[in-house]
Design a protein that fits this description.
60s Ribosomal Protein L30, Chain: A, 4-stranded mixed sheet, single chain, about 20% strand, about 150 residues, alpha+beta, globular
């Protein structure tokens, strides 16, 4: 290692401080965008999407460059009713969501479906609040690889 003369140390220190200050707000751009989620909530046993949530979903898509994403539909139910009933309800919720998206100009070939039914709940199905949160469809904008 080469020792710098004392008179240069001050200049090197200034240069380092300048570079740190110059690049402190610099961030490296990510190669792929992050995923985004919009949940649509349903009443018990229902697959009807109310007008307020329809508007929120359209707002969610507004301004997004869809060529950068796949659209994943994850449908969930609470644990009230039989497995067969909840599988059917999950399918009906995802179908209603997909129909709504296609009617509003979202390309069908970009949409992928996963019906979870009552399995893999994110919230506690032993509480009313948890069951209410599990009655949903998650619309996920999943980034395509760069």
């Amino acid at each position: 290692m080469v020792a710098l003369p004392r008179r240069y140390c001050f200049h090197v220190l200034l240069l380092v401080l300048f570079c740190v200050g110059l690049f402190s707000n610099y961030t490296i751009a990510q190669s792929t965008p992050e995923y985004k989620i919009k949940s649509i909530f349903f009443d018990g046993g229902s697959y009807y999407i109310d007008h307020e949530q329809r508007d929120e979903v359209l707002e969610f898509f507004d301004g997004e460059l869809l060529e950068n994403y796949e659209i994943h539909i994850h449908s969930h139910t609470d644990n009230i009713g039989s497995v067969q009933f909840n599988e059917r309800l999950s399918l009906m919720r995802s179908s209603a969501t997909i129909y709504f998206l296609i009617q509003n100009g979202i390309p069908e070939e970009k949409i992928f479906i996963k019906d979870h039914g009552l399995f893999n709940p994110e919230f506690d199905n032993d509480t009313w609040e948890g069951r209410q949160k599990n009655r949903r469809v998650d619309v996920v904008l999943w980034p395509l690889p760069a």
